[in-house]
């Protein structure tokens, strides 16, 4: 058991250094010993996602949510993989499940906002970013996304005014 945790820590360090392929090798070793190692599944998915391998990442996250349906981290990551595959409605469902489990999850709100924005629902996206910032006013991604959404809405309103 200590060996698995040691390998997990090494894999985490490799990810922090951007060595995702090497980290995946360690995650695979952990998972060959314990196929239900939740942290290894999630972290392997994150490493795969960083390599742009969204379908493989999604499989890891789906396994994690099957093992632990109320794991907010697994749900968030499943949502980000779906978002990366352009499946915004499915991603939003995962973020909403995460919010059902933790209504103060600023990350779920911000990510939901990103998916809504991709669907062209800028006003709804902006609401999500504002809610995320109400929970965590130092959340940079939510602040940047909020600023972009406000700019897009203003430009849209200006265009409408010019046409009328």
List the defining traits of the structure above:
Serine Threonine Protein Phosphatase 5, Tetratricopeptide repeat, mainly alpha, 9 helices, about 80% helix
State the secondary-structure class.
mainly alpha
Report the CATH superfamily of the largest domain.
Tetratricopeptide repeat domain
Q: Could you tell me the mean pLDDT?
A: 93
What CATH architecture of the largest domain do you see?
Alpha Horseshoe
Largest sheet: none
The level 1 CATH classification of the largest domain is Mainly Alpha
Domains (count): 2
Strand content: under 5%
SSE succession: HHHHHHHHH
Strand tally: 0
* Contiguous helical run count: 9
Radius of gyration, in angstroms, nearest whole number:
18 Å
Overall, the morphology is elongated
- Secondary structure: helix percent: over 70%
CATH fold type of the largest domain? Serine Threonine Protein Phosphatase 5, Tetratricopeptide repeat
Sequence stretches where pLDDT stays below 50 over 5 or more residues? none
Q: What is the straight-line distance between the termini?
A: 69 Å
């Amino acid at each position: 058991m200590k060996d698995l945790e040691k390998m997990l820590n090494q894999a985490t360090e490799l990810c922090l250094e951007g060595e995702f392929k090497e980290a995946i090798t360690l995650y695979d070793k952990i998972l060959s010993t314990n196929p239900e190692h939740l942290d290894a599944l999630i972290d392997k998915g994150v490493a795969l996602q960083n390599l742009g391998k969204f379908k493989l990442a999604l499989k890891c996250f789906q396994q994690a949510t099957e093992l632990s349906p109320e794991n907010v981290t697994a749900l968030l990551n499943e949502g980000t993989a779906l978002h990366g595959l352009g499946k915004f409605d499915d991603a939003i469902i995962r973020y909403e499940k995460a919010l059902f489990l933790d209504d103060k999850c600023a990350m779920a709100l911000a990510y939901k906002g990103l998916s809504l924005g991709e669907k062209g629902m800028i006003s709804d996206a902006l609401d999500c970013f504002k809610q995320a910032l109400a929970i965590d006013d130092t959340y940079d991604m939510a602040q940047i996304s909020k600023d972009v959404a406000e700019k897009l809405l203003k430009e849209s309103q200006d265009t409408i005014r010019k046409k009328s």
